[in-house]
Model the fold of this input.
Amino acid sequence: MGPLGAYADEYARSLADPDGFWLKAARAIDWTRMPRRALDRSRAPFYRWFPDGKLNTCYNALDRHVAAGHGDRIALLYDSPVTGTKQRYSYAEITDEVARFAGLLVDLGVGKGDRVVIYMPMVPHAVVAMLACARIGAIHSVVFGGFAPKELAARIADARPKVLVCASCGIEPSRVVEYKPVVDEAILAIAPDCRPEHVVVVQRPQAPATMTANDVDWSQSISQTRPVGCVDVAATDELYVLYTSGTTGRPKGVVRDNGGYAVALAWSMANIYDIGPGDVWWTASDVGWVVGHSYIVYAPLLVGATTVLFEGKPVGTPDAGAFWRVISEYQVKALFTAPTALRAIKRDDPHMAEAAKYDLSRFQTLFTAGERLDPQTYQWATDRLGVPVVDNWWQTETGWPIAANPRGLEPLPIKPGSPTVPMPGYDVRVLDEQNTEVPSGTHGSICVKLPMPPGTLTTLWGDDERYRASYLAQHPGYYLTGDGGYLDADGYLYVMGRTDDIINVAGHRFSTGALEAVLAAHPAVAECVVIGVRDAIKGQVPHGLVVLKSGVETTDPEKLRAELIAAVRHEIGAVTSFQQVSVVEGLPKTRSGKILRKLIRAIADGRDEPVPATIEDPAVLERLRPVLQPSTGTAPRPCA
Ligand code: COA
Ligand code: AMP
Done:
């Protein structure tokens, strides 16, 4: 350690000598051709990591641990309170399952570079399917099971998979959600040349699916396939495409490579999360989100740890003690969850009485991400659990934390409300609109000076230009995170929220533009805006403001509300938690007719945003204020 402390030394080195830093980190991975170069700048701003390296990510996650004599170690613990199932898979067992499923994919014609869409709940088959793709060099694209047919269809049409893998159903605490009809509807909605050739179905007893001609039953077919080995891929080859909400309704396909991702994840497990071989690690998220990709599936297995796959909720499956039960039962060393889950537990069990029923002596750290860890939730969890509660900030695009507290490298003092400091390779700067850095303590747009470290997105699927326009155009030379915030005098970052049209609902990211498109399609709606409003549990929930077409003012507001809510559930999914709709007389606009969304959002957040001089009719704004801030006015409340 140098004079600065281990973190500061490592961070400084990563920026001064990225090649040296990441080539050293690359030694944690088994390569079939060891890279001699780290950063390839030749196609900047499309940077590539380890351009001459070759490896297989599945081999690194599974086979190499078996080859090293750890086949009996538990790789995956499946705990499903919603079905009453518990299963353990050793590294040897899961390697065999993955090799067989990879064989099935090969039999179905899937090869290197082909896409496979995976639409599944939290069952081991989802993990097996992802790793099987990695094994044969196919590119997986996992779609979160809560998305409705139209969203699934948009992702299939963009990814053009050869095969789609799904389960017959998912199980929510209150209902069984049939997945196969969603898949069938999505496939029918897209052009025939974009449709997958086969659908592989995991039949679950809670709601078996009706099979059609091109459907393949997972369990029947797998017994007849031969296991296949790992193929070599270039470090720069794609491992997966993960769609996330952009500022328009069209999702963005974030592209992840193999080599950079493996290196970055392995570095993060040791240095941020302090997890190594044999440790039990639990990420309570969903494989459909980036947190699930990185920290349920790839990272823990890459370092030879045991990962917990939990098919349940923090509350209601069956109670607010579920997290503490799982931690105690499997001797979990660290849990990674979203603050919203802690707030839900706090609501049901304010004194955390449930935790006292379990032995949590092996539990060392609680990590959170997905949204800002608000200081109240931080304090509540810290006081009751007696372990460090550690925020980390990142996004689908980056794949691993931009800012974190490097617990494995050098635990830094925690400042409530801050995810701590930038991680190696992330040269974080807070900029104003003129692309100038602002002084510490001043709010601005949080950006990362290019190039970004390994593991971060390489482009958007099939759309380099959109990648450039979305992330690189606003602040030349920097990656735009879309988040606003500030750095304090100690270099701690504070991430205060999105600066664009994205909202964060229970740690899930949605585009208000996509929600608006659904509302605008209703025949009674002339125009609309969707904003995120504060919610005590979910952080934000969407609130739709709709202006009716003239002549339809007599529409029954309750009926309209029900129709709009149903439309959003059907078109995007229940997981949007869209429940609030207000019919308003008008929306504030500029004289050129542009709706002043930023201003509306600021007022709803209780922020003081200057009213632009170009506003068409200030009276419209005044009439809207009480709807946006219901406690301060007497005007009609939202019909929710
Ligand atoms: N498939 C189908 N439907 C789903 C789904 C899935 N995978 N996930 C959620 N839904 C549905 C739910 O059934 C619910 O439908 P309903 O309106 O008919 O009840 C709706 O989407 C909203 O679900 P959810 O967000 O789970 O809200 P909730 O009120 O049931 O539970 C929390 C609240 C806080 C417990 C829950 O949001 C939660 O566990 N959050 C943690 C999220 C998380 O881990 N995020 C990590 C991202 S890093
Ligand atoms: P996603 O791409 O779905 O992971 O969402 C990423 C977005 O969630 C970020 O751009 C932030 O707006 C928000 N976010 C995630 N983690 C944090 C965090 N720890 N603190 C603040 N915001 C966060």
